[in-house]
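dumping this here so i dont lose it
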């Protein structure tokens, strides 16, 4: 069954390529901001970017950004223990992908660094206007976290007119025991005064434990999870040329006590409060943006495997403080972006830092970017970032990108980007120690680690026509001194981190869309990834091939049907064993009763695909077949 579906998916993709029906996510005229910190057209932005709009997100039941990004080109989502999603961009995991909300980073990974995917669940779904995914290093603009790429969640902004929407959703598994999911959201926006607007959204979501003895006999297949989220934004028009934005975000995400293996139980939770204040001005010489940002995360981590390093439960605090200033201006017939940033991370954890009770790090940065348009059709964007890290000294990361906007809808672009990543607090701290090896050893920090550096080359061709669009991208990324964990010899009481000399990641990305009729549209993408370490080995947990296909049918102006397929190809598991891939199929519909009421329903994982049923060594635990219904009420 799986091989047949996979072959069909790939054959349709191949047909689309041969017919020149490919494009970058289907809409060339979308505006994006992440590639250069200012609005630009998607097609001519100096980077490889995908965009997922709110309307697409609302079609499927979504528990986190992994579900949102599963169909994006160059992105693979690994679903493992407890049903948690891990996001990879071009083979680089979440530790190498910068998470942003409106350009502000989201990070609790220095505190709850293992078994925590809480950063990709932080934002209420109904607050999302769109998600921009930049594939490839963006350290020249955003710093050392952006080695593999950037995921920037753009939220809805305060509107002129008052709008209030209540949305609720229910999803139920068809096999196994439990697994029901519910999500309710209240969204509102409008003007409080002529100069003060506000937006707020509150969300509550609950996921019941799902047990399927065919997949995980003796422990929970998918963990229970309870979340509460609040996001508010105030926009004050201080003067005709100045605005002041105040944002507050509250995130309470809890995993009650659950069995995540045959021998271990865990409980985790995070309570995060985030404040940001942003001043934007338009002046005679250009524009400015000043931002102050503070993220405070209080976490609890309980694990029965911590018996080697009691107590089993520990409280962890992580605080991120950022000040950033940016200026935008034109000079010498060129558009310039210059700025600076201060970033401090503090972790308090008396268990894993038994000597000091915690650790901290500071980094100061300066960045510059210049866009030069010449010969009418060419645009060169170049720049760099200078980072001064208190532990690893200074580093300059340059980047250059050339765009050729030809006639008849053809755009050619490509460039070279460099990046570096300083070791995280827990990787480099000499006082850090955490239980590992299933409770049989300790994992310690290594103060002798070198920062990772990388160089990425990419070349893209994009062709847009009224009914169809095409894009193809090739890339080559060389990473030096990749930080990884040393193997355990089953004897030593400790193991630590070390630098892998050289890793190469390269591949091909194809995307496309076509309007088959006025009411029927098809879009899809295909990615091929090749990875190799300095010893010639392939990296684990990264599929060689991924493919996605989606068919939308607007039966009437009010009624829509869709079918979506996701193929995740063969890969190596954590024991370096080759595992076959799988294909997911989703079916859904939406119906707009009137301007106030919209209904949606469908089935996810229609074929009940479960790699662990066919292979007990599979590390991929997917949610089984589920039916869902959703209702939106607008006032």
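and the seq i came up w/
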């Amino acid at each position: 069954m799986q091989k047949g579906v996979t072959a069909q998916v790939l054959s349709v993709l191949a047909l689309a390529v041969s017919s020149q029906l490919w494009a970058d996510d289907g809409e060339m005229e979308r505006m994006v901001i992440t590639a250069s910190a200012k609005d630009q057209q998607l097609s001519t932005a100096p980077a490889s970017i995908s965009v997922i709009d709110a309307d697409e997100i609302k079609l499927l039941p979504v528990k986190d950004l992994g579900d949102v990004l599963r169909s994006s080109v160059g992105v693979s989502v690994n679903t493992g223990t407890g049903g948690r999603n891990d996001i990879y961009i071009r083979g680089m995991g979440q530790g190498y992908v910068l998470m942003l909300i409106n350009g502000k980073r989201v990070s609790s990974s220095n505190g709850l660094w293992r078994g925590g995917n809480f950063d990709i669940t932080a934002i209420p779904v109904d607050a999302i206007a769109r998600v921009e995914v930049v594939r490839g290093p963006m350290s020249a603009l955003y710093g050392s976290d952006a080695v593999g790429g950037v995921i920037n969640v753009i939220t809805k902004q305060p509107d002129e007119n008052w709008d209030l929407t209540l949305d609720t959703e229910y999803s139920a598994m068809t096999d196994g025991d439990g697994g029901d999911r519910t999500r309710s959201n209240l969204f509102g926006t409008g003007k409080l005064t002529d100069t003060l607007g506000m937006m707020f959204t509150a969300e509550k979501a609950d996921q019941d434990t799902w047990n399927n003895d065919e997949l995980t006999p003796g422990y929970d297949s998918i963990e229970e999870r309870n979340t509460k989220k609040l996001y508010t934004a105030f926009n004050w028009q201080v003067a005709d040329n100045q605005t002041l934005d105040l944002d507050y975000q509250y995130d309470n995400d809890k995993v009650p006590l659950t069995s995540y293996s045959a021998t271990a139980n865990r409980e985790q939770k995070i309570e995060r409060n985030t404040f940001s204040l942003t001043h934007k001005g338009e002046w005679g010489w250009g524009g400015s943006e000043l931002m102050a940002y503070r993220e405070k995360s209080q976490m609890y981590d309980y694990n029965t495997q911590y018996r080697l390093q009691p107590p089993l439960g520990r409280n962890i605090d992580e605080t991120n403080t950022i000040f950033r200033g940016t200026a935008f201006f034109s000079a010498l017939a060129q558009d310039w972006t210059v700025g600076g940033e201060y970033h401090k991370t503090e972790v308090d954890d008396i268990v894993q830092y038994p000597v000091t009770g915690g650790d901290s790090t500071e980094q100061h940065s300066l960045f510059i970017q210049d866009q030069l348009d010449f010969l009418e059709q060419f645009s060169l964007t170049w720049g760099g970032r200078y980072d001064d890290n208190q532990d690893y000294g200074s580093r300059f990361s340059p980047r250059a990108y050339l765009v050729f906007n030809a006639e008849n809808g053809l755009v050619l672009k490509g460039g070279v980007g460099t990046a570096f990543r300083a070791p995280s607090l827990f990787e480099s701290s000499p006082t850090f120690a955490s239980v590992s090896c299933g409770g049989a050893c300790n994992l310690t920090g290594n103060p002798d680690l070198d920062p990772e550096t990388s160089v990425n080359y990419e070349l893209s061709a994009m062709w847009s026509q009224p009914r169809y669009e095409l894009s193809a991208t090739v890339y080559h990324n060389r990473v030096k001194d990749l930080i990884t964990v040393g193997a355990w010899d089953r004897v030593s009481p400790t193991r630590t981190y070390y630098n892998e000399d050289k890793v190469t990641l390269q591949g091909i990305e194809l995307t496309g869309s076509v309007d088959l009729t006025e009411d029927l549209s098809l879009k899809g993408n295909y990615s091929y990834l090749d990875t190799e370490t300095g010893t010639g080995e392939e990296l684990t947990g990264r599929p060689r091939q991924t493919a996605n296909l989606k068919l939308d049918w607007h039966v009437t102006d009010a009624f829509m049907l869709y079918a979506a397929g996701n193929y995740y190809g063969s890969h190596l598991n954590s024991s370096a064993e080759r595992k076959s891939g799988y294909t997911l199929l989703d079916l859904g519909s939406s119906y707009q009763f009137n301007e106030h009421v919209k209904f949606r329903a469908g089935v996810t994982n229609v074929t009940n695909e479960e790699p662990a049923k066919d292979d007990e060594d599979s590390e991929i635990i997917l949610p089984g077949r589920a039916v869902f219904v959703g209702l939106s009420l607008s006032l």
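The first strand starts at residue 31 and ends at 32.
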